[in-house]
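Batch job 17 of 40 flagged for manual review because the log was empty.
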Amino acid sequence: GVYYPGTEVTVRATPLTACDEFVRWSDGSTEAVRTFTLEHDTTLRAEFRRRLFNLRVSTDGHGSATVRR
């Protein structure tokens, strides 16, 4: 957006899916919600990563299981 100098703004990094998680802002901050006062043009980029989940597969008796991505 466009703001006047001295305006206090709050930004929130929100993942698009539950499988993503916030990592950091482009300036290194790891706070997902930030409030600051704008004094000059500012660009922030939020970095996300895909969450990894463990999957344990077992068989009961004879047989096999195949896991495909």
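Reviewer: the log was empty due to a logging misconfiguration, but the result itself is present. The beta strands are 8-12, 20-25, 33-37, 46-50. Unflagging and moving on to job 18.
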